């Protein structure tokens, strides 16, 4: 049947709920660009065809004609417009427009009626069938949800690094040790192509720009103002597609790792002596005059990619809905993107509820937190953002404030804040349990600690903390912390390296002290001590003596054996 060819890479037999309402086209979607399409070849046999081995995964996608998105469509509409009047104003995604007539935000609105022709199980099975493959473009965690993201784009125009599909880490030790929680998870969105979750949205924006350029729209380059991660993602995706990128960066306010990324990727980098809000103002004025496409999250296309992280979380829990999702917020597009992803899953029947959302802000840049505390009905007041280690969210006048308020109201959400001390300590504690998180994720964890202490988040609540960037982008702040070298900050969990002379005795001395300090962690060993003392065999004295290192090693092992066994082994 016709519809089965839509997803022929899937081993599942997927049936639309109402197949008669669909009119799938049988002609190849890439009719003008395909050179060797064989529409008569059954898709299932093409992988074994040796006559025309695929040159690459794009060619293979063309051959399979996996794009079926022409049933689905999306348009720009004014954000949160009254549904009865929204018909009045809407734009094709192929238009270059960032704001509504009245100057408000836009939103990408999907043809939900068309998507609803398929039931929740159909979408769940479809998305699940695409995970972890190289099938273009579905190997990407974003484009595996293409029908919900940019349904009308040719797969051929997509610029992707197979972003997304990031791991959902069970923070077992952190949860148990610091929060008495069993079901705490960290969604490592920052383990990604350019090291932050901005890749999710940028693949969508740059793909659409790629399409516009092929349509000869006046787009010479793409520009953004950035606190670091957006410019890294923009320049990487533009470089992959050969599109010029221009980034406005606040001078001396971003990490070296973030600055070097756009430079290495060949972007035109303007280092401007102002803060993020100043850069944002400038780029908006500039893009109004020049053929530069604006890539900031004012641009609602990016949120379509960012929202897939929410869908992925549900998918990774086998479509069970967590109780809480905590997202660090600055310009506030992402808190809305997560809401939108969850809400679409509910509306289309993949799940039956959505999690409660928490937006976590740095206390040094907390306009949303103040707005929340004052009560949503008060007028929103931007603030002047102060320096924070969570530099990507050092934003005082968030572009997406309306989107964030909407998302939090609709999800029974909460806003929390974290001081520099709280966020750095939370980051250090998380790192000490085997993670390597960024300061923004530290903000989210600090918010979690507060909500746990207030009893709002319960010990058994399934909670997901969204980790937004890779810790390796923020090594300087970690180095400063562990060197106890931050003004006005008690670096409580600093773990500085020990300087030791290069001789055996000195090394032994520090190691013996270290092992003794760890002794308390091994209760079995403690029992051992008393038994040993009774028998006048002072095993622990071995630590004080020059014994063979392997003997010391045995003692410092986590021991759950019976004291006798250890005792005998030691002898
Ligand atoms: C962009 C970003 C955020 C915040 O996202 P907003 O949509 O601006 O609220 C958080 N953490 C990191 C690392 C980011 O790059």
TrEMBL record:
SUPFAM superfamilies: Tryptophan synthase beta subunit-like PLP-dependent enzymes. Its main location: plastid. Residues 1-14, 38-50 have a biased composition (Low complexity). GO terms for biological process: threonine biosynthetic process. It is found in: Plastid, Chloroplast. InterPro entries: Cys_Synth/Cystath_Beta-Synth, Ser/Thr_deHydtase_PyrdxlP-BS, Thr_synthase-like, TrpB-like_PALP, TrpB-like_PALP_sf. Residues 160-468 form the Tryptophan synthase beta chain-like PALP domain. Residues 1-59 are annotated as: Disordered. Its EC number is 4.2.3.1. Residues 15-24 have a biased composition (Polar residues). It comes from the Eukaryota. CDD domains: Thr-synth_1 (cd01563). The keyword Cytoplasm does not apply. The modification N6-(pyridoxal phosphate)lysine is found at residue 198. Pathway: Amino-acid biosynthesis; L-threonine biosynthesis; L-threonine from L-aspartate: step 5/5. The keyword rRNA-binding does not apply. Homodimer. This is threonine synthase. It comes from Malus domestica.
